[in-house]
Fold each of these.
Amino acid sequence: MYTTTTPVRIDAPVRRLIDTVTPGGHARYLRVQPEPGATVNGCFSNVCAKAARDGGRRLCGWQLWEWPGVLVEAEFHAVWLSPAGEMVEITPKPHGEGTILFVPDERRAYRGEVVDNVRIALHEDQLVQHFIRVSRAIVQVMTRNGPPAAQAHIPAEQIAPLRRVQQFLGHAIDAQLREHDPCPCGSGLRYRQCHGHELELALA
Ligand SMILES: [Zn+2]
């Protein structure tokens, strides 16, 4: 569930995503060339280490993802700008993608903060909207106490219920469930009138 991958092309929703995060931005495909020692979730430190070793500098921007048929997503990210001015993706990918789609965003610097992903639904359905809102709520809880260093102090019971709802929605969306289908809880009601209704109240 919730398996995003590199968008195969820059279609209208991807273009809209680019214009949301960095208006007029120019996205390009970069080949993934993992640097020895680089970690999947450590793009900012990977690039700092690389620049300290080989020169060049860190270039911040957005890595673009797609959950096919469901949503497109922009993740705050950094690549290495070589001394020759070439953008190089040195961070390995969780699902082994060979290329990424990246749009540079020089207005943004990384200061160790948690930056939420920006997500755009590919169709109007309450399940996808709820998935996006729950995902945002998780980051809001995580960052409520300040910088990432404080995250260790967030009680697990504040995050775990949200993660369970996120998973529930992810599985339902993967199973092609729509808001007017029977709720997966087995109540016999439509999702919209059952758990969709409860979640609507909870998210409000
Ligand atoms: Zn239900």
Note: The chain has a mean pLDDT of 92.
Amino acid sequence: MASAGEIPRRRRQTKLIDMLHLHPLLQSWWQQLGSFCCANCNHSWQPFSSAAVIDDLSNRVNGNQVVMILSRTSAEMPTDELLMQGLTRYYLDGTLHRIEDVGDTLAAGSWLLHDRFKGLTNHLQRAAEGLNAAHSLEARVAVVVEDDFAEYQVDDYCAECHLSHDSSNLRLRLLGDNNWHDLLGAPLSEWGKLLDNQDKSAAARLVRFAIECGLHHLQVDRQLATLSLGEARRIELLTWISQSRSGQTLVFDEPGIGL
Ligand SMILES: [Zn+2]
């Protein structure tokens, strides 16, 4: 039972994006359209994907060559911590070295070995696991095939101007031509433009519905308390209607108050 009139106190600070549960839309757009862009040099790149690296490896590996999956340390690392993680070798000047031989710490910028195997076709699973483990350290990732060293583009590092983006705001997230961050403050009409006609998800339906109800101008970061009574009532009605299931009857008592 919804009460007419004012927005309940506990919901006044709620933003539209949360009220309408729109975050899943950003996630699905990220999967379809997402890319990173370096604010320093404008270089853009796709999010890291082990599948894409393996795709490339299938061209580099033909036969039983030795494949080594590496990640680069961004800071000095205590060797006992690395050994506890099962990392025992690092790659330097074309060969592997034992981590336990370097003393207490391994220097920043060392290439850690995550896995090593011969040939690719029988080791696709290991390759994916090794790449994901390397990438999970939020480090740069490289794969050596015999003596051929190749680095792969990761999320946090610009391969063009060599800036690390892990602790800066240099890395912009793009959804097509839109900046992710800007979308968080954009009006619903901008969200509507990104909608795929085939998208029948609850969030997509709500955005379409809201635009049809004349709420296209509302920015998704608006708090409910800042809406006019009429806007707030329409949002309230929309969320009720969107939650209804087919065959269900909704009864509204004077829903037009304030409209
Ligand atoms: Zn750059």
Note: The CA atoms of residues 25 and 201 lie 8 Å apart.
